[in-house]
Amino acid sequence: MNRFFFVFVLMFSFISCSEKKEKLFEKLSSYRTGIEFENTLSFKEDFNIFTYRNYYNGGGVGLGDINNDGLLDIYFTSNLEKNKLYLNKGNFSFEDITEKAGVGGNKSWSTGVSLVDINADGHLDIYVSNSGDIKGDNKQNELFINNGDLTFTEKAYEYGLDDRGYSTHAAFFDFDKDGDLDCYLLNNSYKGGFRITSIGRDQRPIRDEVGGDKFFLNDNGKFIDISEEAGIYGSIIGFGLGVTIGDANNDGWMDIYVSNDFFERDYLYINNQDGTFSENLEAMIKSISAASMGADMADINNDGLSEIFVTDMLPQPDERIKTVTTFDSWDRHQNIKTSGYWNQYTRNTLQLNNGNSTFSEIGRLTGVEATDWSWGALMFDFQNDGNKDIFVANGIYQDLTDQDFLQYVTQDEVIKQIASPGSVDFQKLIDLIPSVPVSNYGFVNEGNLKFSDETLSLGLGDPSFSNGSAYGDLDNDGDYDLIVNNVNMESFIYRNNSEKLFPLNNYIKIQLEGDRENINAIGSTVSLYTRDQIFYLEQMPIRGFQSTVDNNLIFGIGENISIDSIEVNWDDGKQTTLYNISSNQTISINKSNANSVNEVYQDNVKLFNEIGDEILTHIHYENNFVDFDRDRLLFHMSSSEGSCICEGDINNDGYPDLYIGGSKGYPGSIYIWKKNRFIKYLYPFLDEDKESEDTDCVFFDANSDGNLDLYVASGGNEYSIYSPELRDRLYFNNGDTFKKSTQILPAGKFESSSVVLKNDYDNDGDDDLFVGTRLIPQKYGLPSNGYFLENDGYGNFSDVTDRIADKLNNIGMITDAKFFDYDIDGDNDLILVGHWMPITLFENINGSFSPKEIGAFEKSEGWWNTIELGDLNNDGKLDLVVGNHGENSRFKASKSKPVSMYINDFDDNNSIEQVIFQYNGDSSYTMALRHDLVMQMPGLKKRYLKYNSYKNQTVHDIFSPEKIRTSHVNLVHDLKTSAFLNKGNDFEKISLPIESQFSNIFSVGIDDYNNDGYSDIILAGNLYDVKPEVGRYDANYGQILLGGEELKFEVVPYNYSGLLLDSQVRDFSILKNLGGKNYLLVLNNNDTLQSYSF
User: Fold this and answer.
1) Dihedral sign for Cα atoms in the order 296, 301, 304, 307
2) Same-domain check for residues 358 and 472
3) Three-class SS of residue 349?
4) What region does 652 belong to: left with phi over 0, alpha with psi -120 to 50, or beta?
5) What pTM was computed for the model?
């Protein structure tokens, strides 16, 4: 008994110690710090969430050393009560000096805070943005000028900064490099925040003189509104919640990112270096957040370029997705875009800077896209390992998006209880709104664009309603502490324990000393260099959401004990360089020691050179067809996966000619090489078949007459099984024109083909064909067939599949295939890829083809789009590069946690449905929202009367055992684009760089592009026709991967590759030694063909 008791005590002690394990961020009590600030919001009949839509947006945090004692002080903004200023006394002890300092504010509703030395007297001043719609309050912003004695004097009017709009935040920086600080003032429209509106983009340039954003020029200490001259929008459709300053295009001048809530898109203002800006978001960024809130800019991959992170409202747990989330329909989304509001999606977005004035949105790849109702966004190095992590402040005090609440309050009986003619019982209405605190998020940057949600282990897991946040070194120990402003609960003060938990990680703190009217050198950039690393920060303390961070720059440098060099590019372009700097010290760098103006160097030598229409002019047009009108529970369209391009010398002049496929309603085109360019020839037979959708093509001599004939595969998802437009077409070349064969190809019925290959499988001297089918019309998800077509030598083809390759029947949803002699036995084998199917190899054994078990292909079911062959390691065997869906997606799959699709007539209406499930945590839940599933299967409405009953529903919860048993089930285990090395009897899968996973890959080009003797790879794709809830795939601009002996496949930066494939790439044509040059032709879906020389 005593032994048992002793063991119990030991176990209890161990558990207690484990629970008290020290966290990286240690939350300090108000008793410990003396900070008792709380942004308290209580109900008022005349001012509440229904009378003022931004009621729960919260307040900000401002950090700065107001008395120059070397310690950071803290300023909190409050919405209904006085703002607070806390003086840092050292050792995390603070004193509330608000009243004697005179900075509590006299307005009713404060939002953002900007700490800046506005008069360059060596003392930080405080600019407070004010908002709200409170009767009798004029909302003027306040500027508290630091008197140098711990008192302040309000002088916003004297400086010209007493704006009366719904101000959110103000950013001060020297946009014109004249030595003083100018101001971007972010305002939020007086207009109601409805999601889509009759007010169109034509309103964007029309200024709202009271409520719009403003840009102020500092004219000898007086701020003058130059918004219109500077090119700044300030209309009634601007709902600004975040303003972020940074160098977006790496030209040494500060640009502006504005995140807008509601229906208006964000703005990206590029500094023209002449006193004006150009709003250039649509040319630089393809997808943005829909309800953009806080934002930040920082270099997350240590390449010296700043990324942009923007928060939104997408939750991560299934129970939150299913109860508080809704998404735009496809039609609504299209309306938003055509109305001028761009590609907006409900999720956080992380824009990776490509270095060529474009960004790739990789939030889904990095796993930072879903953090619930999010506000503050900060990117900084938590533990000084050299990688910048991400903190998100999170929560809404009363959640108006709760779907059961919205459903309940729209019932007639409830409306009668709450509203009567001329009045509304707001108290009763507000009491019905759920209030659910959620934790903030902390994502640890593991390098190589990988982030891990470590919220709990970091110590950041307290449920809260958090808004503004800021980081700063409160105790001068060389790491960033964290301060968070909360609604209706005390603020969070987190002490960073890096020096204890990560003692091997080092830092360098840099204090910049500017000159003239910018003594903190706002707008300067600092780069630290080691032998193989770059660490980059921008001196721009006003950031995040309504907040200001520490203006001392702390560089985490990991286990480096010294830095080779520090390069400061000052705000006016001058440069200072220091060498051989030891770690763990604070360095003050004065601008007075700067050298001459630094000029940005651009290397113009590129692998590829775009040549426009020098050799070819072609535009592909996609017909307008919406797959979702029929298949309502699918997320990706299949109808826009075309087109195709193929080469062949059709006039026997020794030069290649081209066929480029069309879409439904648009005929294909034939181009003849003549006089150093491709000339389009108008053949009537092409127009006769324009109602077919071309998916693949091949030139070959079908009838042995010495002329190349043309086979065109017909596919798409627009047709029924009775549509003759699905018939593949064989055109015989008689030397002058083409004549279509009367055969119904591939197999005597109408099917949706995807790929055609020529190959003399029976070695009789003529080319036979393989044709793969993509899908069964109107039965997406059910397996279709592959066909072997035997040529009699005269162009007559017989289906011999059952005789030589019967396993091709019901093989799957084929997208591509290749013939190659994988085992070097003298005959060509066949490899297939497709959607919801594994990579499948058919071995050729004496003219018959049988599936070959390959270990590397086990559980390889994916959404494979294309396959290409090349000898990657120079061993004489052909290897594989296979384009897949990629990992920059809400869909995640692995061998143990596959994506699944159940196909059945679930509601017994003689029409099948496809229901997709994927894992969220340890269980697999349906991806469809309640209202979408119930709309498709009304019989489920009784089971799911409330949204809350629909959360965490697996297939076994939704459907009966009999329906599950009789369903056809497809799985996806692998979404990565990958390479496979041919080992003779097996293949070895090798991972490609993370950049290969940015988007769907539809086209692969393998060649030695840099002439070093090793095969290189080009990857391209993208898919735009995707439901808004998962968001389109558009982050690939054409990746070049350079091969080598070690098969590391080095990614070529876009500004050196020369490629800019900013559309939906569907096919490549590589033409070697044509007119003495090499060419890459890039076929885009619904866009212009691009041409490059190399």
Assistant:
1) negative
2) yes
3) strand
4) left
5) 0.95
